[in-house]
Amino acid sequence: MRSRQQFVRKIVYLAVLAGLLLPLSWLSQPASVDRGGQRQPGGKLAQLRDDYSLSQARLGDIDPVSETMKLATLGMRGPAANLLWTKALYYQKIKDFTNLSATLEQITKLQPNFIRVWIFQGWNLSYNVSVEFDDYRDRYFWVIRGVRFTQEGLEYNRDEPTLLREVGRVISRKMGQSDEHVQFRKLFRADDDFHGSSADSERDSWRVGKKWFERCVEVIEKTGRRPKGSMDSEASPLMYLAEAPLCQLYYAATIEEEGTFGDEARAAWAEAQRDWEAYGEQDIPVGSGTTVKLGESNYRFYIDRVNEFMQRLEDSAPGARERLLAERRASLPPEELQVLDIPVNQRDEAQHALAAKAYPKLIVSHIDVANSLPPGQGRNQALKLAVELTNYEIWKSEVEFHRSTVNYGYWQLRAEAEQEPEALAAHELLFQAQQAHRDVDLEKAAELYTAGFQKWADLLNKDVRGAKKYVSLVEDGITGEMMVDTIRKYRACLKQLDAPFPTDFPLARTIELHDQSGQAQPASDRPAEQSDPDATPEAE
Amino acid sequence: MVLETEPIPFWPWLTGTAHEWWQVLLGLALLGLGLGLVVRAVRYGPLDAVRTVSRGVWAAIVDLARISPRRVLALAWLARREALHRWVLMAFVLFSLLLLFGAWFLDELSNDPSRLYLAFVLEMSRGLLLLLALLLSVASIPADLAQRTIYTVVTKPVRASELVLGRLLGFWMVGTAMLVMFGIVGYVVVMRGLTHAHEILPQHVSNLSESSGDAGLTGRTETTRRHHHTFTFDGQGRGRTEPTQGHWHAVQVEGSGSSAKYTVGSPQGWLQARVPIWGKLHFKDRSGANAEKGVSVGEEWAYRSYIEGGTLATAIWRFDGLRAAEFPQGLPLELTIRVFRTYKGDIVSAVQGGLRLRNPETGVTSAERTFPAHEFTTDSLLIPTKLFDADGQPLELFRDLVTPSGAVEIELQCITPSQYFGMAQPDLYVRASDRSFTLNFVKCYLGVWLQMLVLTAVGVLFSTFLNLPVALMATIGTLLGGYRLDYIRELAAGRMVGGGPIEQIVRLFTGMNMTTKFEEGTQRTVMTMADDALRWLFQRLTHVLPDFGALSDTSFVADGFDIPAVRMLEHSVATLAFVVPVFVASYLLFRTREVAR
């Protein structure tokens, strides 16, 4: 009888347990997306989490599966996570990506607030696993898989700027700059599962990446937390603030490569310019409590101040600098003096060492110039000028350094130049030329190439407010290489027509500066040992 | 699927392992006898030792021979009742909970959800069942001894052997019942978890051709379970989706135009049990000379080797025993290869491969059949019964290309220059037939059942002479060692980078990297001696620890391959060969306890 009572009691317990599963299910059901793309709010806990923007880290994990797994490790979450990492590495080694994905899910259930897991494995999936596949569609699948993995991390770590930045980085850079960028951008645009019901205009990879970077910046401003860079140090604001405007710049450049011109392209470049200038007007912290502004007006301010104070200092002590230099040079030991007269590229190692010893002795600082004045003859005034001049020079180099880090000047100029009618026309003509070349309409292609290059030359030589503002684009590597690549195709087209390369080619200087391989040069100008491939337009 | 060790036919396997088994058994028996003699001799003298040990051995033989099945079954039933009181219901509830919640969070974005589901369910079942077996087996006898309830049993006319065997059988009965329940629930979860359908909306269907009817119809399904398919119709009303996530659906249409109704069938291509015929692989290098392996492209995992495209490098599989009656439609091949590009080339187009059949006796070769290589998918190629050679002359498959003994060679080359194909022996096979997935699922559970038998026996063994915590740790150690047997073998063979266990501990604590050599001296000598001793011990352990990994067939079921009957037979024989001596050892150890005398 007693054992029967116990048995009945157990059945009752079981029934109660089963009954409790119903409210548990109501509480714990995760949020999901139904077949129509509508987001289902899920159970009560998921709704509350959404309503109050609750972060896992603040509340201490409320994901039931994650909690169950942590409990099941009986206090050995660390060793369990280590084992899972080892398993993940093993699955990656044997290219079992199904199980790799599943293991990563388990790791993140055990360590949902360990950001590095989400970042590393999201990157691993998008960059390392994707390249294991030969078919570009499979590669795309895994790139997106990595993006989604990182996005999932945001569910557990709401408003984590590092994850937001990482999502933006993969979407913009991997989709937009990898070897498969043409294919990836097409697939990304057509990916309804990723975009849901977004309009086609909202599906460009650069624009989507930009939105993620902007969201990252909003979160940084709201929370004061900066994203982490490599080695868990904080990322530089100079870099992460530049990412959204750079996406817009690359977007504008890419849509022209893909065949969008005219007003749409101009509008894209105009937006890019606005974004870039807004970035330049920000006070960006660069360490040790200092901030810089990268914008043209600020840079020009320092250049003008340096020039002005230099002039005033020279005026207050005319010829002093040259005289001091001559004195110091004369005081150098003969062997050092001798070395300075040898051209730099002809010095041997010992001579370089001597020269390195000599140069610091020849530096005439502004303070030295001021001090060369006799006391009472304006020396104090000159010293003040020298100190201010030195400070302005330091600030100027600081701004220059950080501008060069993000190539601020180049992008500023490029954004302006690309809005000019000549630039828009040049891109359109060269695009049509390449299309005609692919369609083997060689004469038309040659005409269009010629017209396009002429338009580009017109842009470079354009007089803007009394100066050839855009001529420095000739020397720039990015634009230069882009042009050289097209010039190679033009040359191949001419070769197929048995036509000579024009002797008065308007972009000869570009070839001279940027054609490393010599393939864009006319055959007669190339060294004899260089090969002469028939470059044909690459199929897209 | 990945098969890192080639399957061995049953009789060679049996003769090979039986030889080793006898050696180990004899060694352990002699060790046991020797220890018994020594211990007895130290206490009571050598003559007494010989007398007592021989009497004990004879008594044990008689005891074992006189086991009463009726008493064993009674004790088994008693053990079953105890188990029900303790762990069983909890285990089932836990299993159901984990399946329920776990199924919500299984990755719907996985590129092969069926593999994931199957692996999850099978591993969950195995894990829980082994946990149950572990806790049941190690707790029983020590708990009885601690609570003194064992005296109520041993005072009955019950032999020690019957007591031990009864416990074993009882726990096995409970484990089997649990496994059946796990299997049923797991099967239902898998079937329900994978079953889905898609809708097709007319606005997502387009007609490529001008003609009426279904020909040229193409479109895409709606998204269900985070994926969708594109589909096409073949003009005879038969539609089919493209494979996505490892499966496809049949599509039917009723009506036409905007009023057409589309029906998408259930997923196909999941839950299979292929019966493969494996061949033997060898290679020719880029100059056409025979080679044992292909080239390495620098991958860490050397399971596959590669052949260079645009050269004479060839991978050749030789199949034997193929009969025309078994393949009336032709030879169905399935192929999984890897592609390695030395340069990106044409990103959009796949690297091209070529396949030929060759008669190994007459040298007659079919014309090359080209195909685009797809990685990480299984390509199906049907070699028809009527073919042509390179000169356009007609050939019959089984008359011209297959020898009278059923042998044929299949040659695979990479056509695209400077790109490589990678393959291992199991990557190309003849798909002889398909068996029932349900039966295959059951066979996999049989493997889990055998693991449960082994672990229960080990747990009972340790519980006969150790207390509960120590027996638990020893059984867990055996379980972990059994799963990591490959690692222990590597350790025993001295093939680990960074040296033996002691050397690696020293490197860890001193922060030395794995390749720096130690300086000659006392430290190094002591370390090397300790490592040699440990290696000797690990070497012995590898002969004794049960190979749980080998008993697991999850990968067969998850990858859609039938578990061969030979493999099940090998598992069963191995389990029996392990369990019987362990039971005997348990009985002998239990007899040494005072309570059992």
Description:
The complex is a heterodimer of chains A (540) and B (597). Chain A is globular, with a radius of gyration of 32 Å. Chain A has 25 helices and six strands. Chain A has three domains: 188 residues, no CATH class; 110 residues, no CATH class; 106 residues, no CATH class. In chain A, the strands form three sheets. In chain A, strands 1-2 form a two-stranded antiparallel ribbon. Chain A is 67% helix and 3% strand. Chain A has 540 residues and is an all-alpha fold. By secondary structure, chain B is an alpha+beta fold. The model of chain B has no long low-confidence stretch (mean pLDDT 86). Chain B has 16 helices and 21 strands. In chain B, a hairpin with a 5-residue loop joins strand 17 and strand 18. Chain B has four domains: 66 residues; 281 residues, no CATH class; 63 residues, no CATH class; 159 residues, Jelly Rolls, CATH 2.60.120.
The oligomeric status of these chains comes to heterodimer
| Main sheet summary of chain B | 6 strands, antiparallel
Count helical runs of chain A. Answer: 25
Largest sheet of chain A: 2 strands, antiparallel
DSSP strand count of chain B: 21
Span between termini of chain A:
82 Å
Q: Percentage of helical residues of chain B?
A: 40-55%
Stretches of chain A where pLDDT is under 50 for at least 5 consecutive residues are 57-61, 525-540
Principal-axes geometry of chain A comes out as globular
The greatest interface between two protein chains, and residues involved on each side, is:
A-B, 40 and 43 residues
Major sheet strand order of chain A: 1-2
Classify the helix fraction of chain A into a percent range.
55-70%
> Beta-strand level of the residues of chain A, as a percent range?
under 5%
Q: Residue-averaged pLDDT of chain B, rounded?
A: 86
- Radius of gyration of chain A equals 32 Å
> How far is the N terminus from the C terminus of chain B?
53 Å
Strand order of the largest sheet of chain B: 1-2-3-4-5-6
Give the helix/strand class of chain A: mainly alpha
Q: Based on helices, strands and strand pairing, what is the structural class of chain B?
A: alpha+beta
In total, how many domains does the architecture of chain A comprise?
3
